[in-house]
Amino acid sequence: MTTNTRKNRVSAHTSGIVLILVLFLTVKTCRHYGGPGDAAEMSDKFTESMYVLANEPSVALYRLQEHVRRSLPELVQHKSDMQSWEEQSQGAIYSVEYACSAVKSMTNSSLYFKNIDSLLRQAISMKEQISSSQGRSLHDVTPSPSPLVSAPHAPSTSS
Question: Per the record, which residues fall in region Disordered (predicted)?
Answer without folding.
Answer: 131-159
